Amino acid sequence: MTDSAPAPTLATGLVSALSASSPGDAPTGSTGPSAARTDGPARVVIDLDLPGATISRHLYGHFAEHLGRCIYGGFFVGEDSEIPNTRGIRDDVVEALRALRIPNLRWPGGCFADDYHWKHGIGPREERPRMVNSHWGDIVEDNSFGTHEFMDLVELLGTEAYVNGNVGSGTVQEMSEWIEYLTRADDSPMASLRRRNGRDEPWKVPFFGIGNEAWGCGGNMRAEDYAALARQYATYVRDHAGNEVTRIAAGASDSDYSWTEALMRAATNLESKDGRPGPFQAISLHYYTMSGPWADKGSATEFSEEEWYRTLSRAAFAEELVARHATVMDHYDPHKKVGLVFDEWGTWWNVEPGTNPGFLYQQNTVRDALVASLHFDGFHRHADRLLMANIAQTVNVLQAMILTDPDSGALVLTPTYHVFAMNAGHQDASALAAHVLLPEAPAEVDGRELPMISASASTTGQTALVSLSNLDAAEARTLVLDLRGRAVTGHSARVLTGASTAAHNTPEQPEAVAPRALDAVREHERGLEIDLPPHSFVTVELQLG
Ligand code: AHR
Questions:
Q1: Least buried of 82, 263, 488, 542, by fewest C-beta within 10 Å?
Q2: From ligand 1's centre to the CA of 265, what distance in Å?
Q3: CA dihedral 20, 21, 27, 29 (to 10 degrees)
């Protein structure tokens, strides 16, 4: 193994220049969403014949932690539940997520991952040791949902596994044996143990996390100390039986560019024999959107217009973070062999009144939907470096796709779910640049420019998909889709909005915010003219000649 870390001087300067950027800082230029000025009507200009990077389907990934009612009650109700289930896993949740074509699922944490000892979650359930889930409610975890249950869920969902290992309180041997248990085919000790527990065939595990938030709940480490451990632990996460693992080092929070730099300096084995970088192939990033400070993040459903715009400005900041972490990575890895994995993103509000503060249960409104659409627009623009992204979290926790009622068991699809559904056509498509031109100067919100229209686009074969967000809380917008380079032979559009910015779905009103056909699309000499309602998300599917 050869190391060829560049001299620190340039990079140190680079990171200190980048570090001036965090939510609330002054506008920072061209790394976030932008809009040029125009004298004419609002326009989104798209060259349909200039496809760019592939938007990995894994940017539409998910995250399920042993936290609150995500696993227990959300995914897993047990075989004896009255709620229809398959081996304890809720059928309705599986059906809803299969409809989204979720590409991967991260498990078991989060902070929980660095407390989790996987051998406690295998074998007969009644014999599994208990543990304390100290991060999330300080409750006793009975380990009834473990490795076999998770891989069963993965198979039912038709998705791919992203297993997050334990560095903070686990051993190298424990991590090494877990990947052997999961993926080895022969009669090795761990493969034999798996068979004794009822599973003959190895599973595929394409993604493996080397700890989580090592700078905090994952061990309170310094960057260089963790970077050394990440090299060591990742070495023993081996490729067994043709299972090729992407090892993901626990990355930075927010604008901690020094953390990314420390990991890139440790990931300098970029010319390994098989052409893959080593010892880890990707680095993660975490960033949450909230309208207030950490101590009082804001209510999910009761917010002012000022909080609406501040939230959306902070969501748009996620793209700036991706761009700046990618800039650090480019310095060490100009050929983009190491992926950036944004494996925790989304809104984090104060918990719903009357719920356990440790369970992170929150409602989900039109505002959450636009937070999601803004993230996706940014992700599409950085598809060349972004390998994966995982919203936190899939069911009943933070910015969930699905909320379930603890008493009745009723299931509700959130506005965020519908953004994932409407954007599903971007998965594995080729990104198209979408230039936004607006007649007005962008508003300055929370120290940065926030154009009222956000857009992104992609193409696959004879179709293109355009995503449009109208961030204006009160005003409808008419805009022209200026479509160049290919003939457009047909179109259809859908809109997601609600009666107010805080509209949300409940068991009583499950479709208060749900996609509907949008008829307000007219032929225009440049392409199409579209009316976007206030606070709305619109997708336009184009048939191309
Ligand atoms: O998603 C909730 C928590 O947020 C995760 O456990 C942790 O990684 C992050 O701080």
A1: 82
A2: 25
A3: 90
